[in-house]
Amino acid sequence: MRAPARPAAVLLAGAAVAAALLLSACTGAHPSATTDPAPHTTASDSATPTPTPTPTASAAPALVPGGTAEQNLPYFDKVNQATIAAKPAAQGRDFIDALVAAGFTKSDMQVTPDTTTIGLKAASVQFSVQFGAGCVIGQYGPDSGGYTSLTSPTLATGGCLIGQTRPIDW
């Protein structure tokens, strides 16, 4: 035979269930929460709103006169990518002219020929700007997979590019 339930225990259990239901009803989402974008405040809400961080726009790349190759690589890339966008078949002179127009010093530049030694169009062209002990080097053409760039220490010969370069005499 089963012992009769204690009235006090039943009462406490019922009160606990009722309290749990009441609390869960208070924390559930309000039906208008998905359609009403304005937050609702109550007396229990904090009077000081928490600020939402806003993203800051990063500065556009710019030439850093007297800077390093690493500091100038983002601007070098920006200029060269704009050159390619304006002229997809850009050659060496196109890059050099655009870099000069953007403020790079022509006497610090090197460029490889646009044609091979037997007169064929070069599969890619390389161009560089020297910044003291460092260089920014760009390469463009189908054999290089499009445009690529990097920074490198200046060569022992004093330049940036290995092999034959053409005079920048224009």
Structural overview:
The radius of gyration is 34 Å and the shape is globular. It has 170 residues and is an alpha+beta fold. The chain contains 3 helices and 4 strands; from the N terminus they run H-H-H-E-E-E-E.
Entry keywords:
170 residues; alpha+beta; four-stranded antiparallel sheet; 3 helices; 29% helix; disordered N terminus
Taken in chain order, the helices and strands follow as HHHEEEE
Report the count of strand segments: 4
Question: What is the number of helices?
Answer: 3
Distance from N terminus to C terminus (CA atoms, Å) equals 111 Å
Q: Which of globular, elongated, flat, extended, rod-shaped describes the shape?
A: globular
What is the radius of gyration?
34 Å
The portion of residues forming beta strands comes to 15-25%
Structural class, by secondary structure, is alpha+beta
Q: What is the percent of helical residues?
A: 25-40%
Q: Which regions have little confidence, pLDDT < 50, spanning 5+ residues?
A: 1-40
Q: If strands are numbered along the chain, what order do they take across the biggest sheet?
A: 1-2-3-4
Largest sheet: 4 strands, antiparallel
Rounded mean pLDDT score: 80
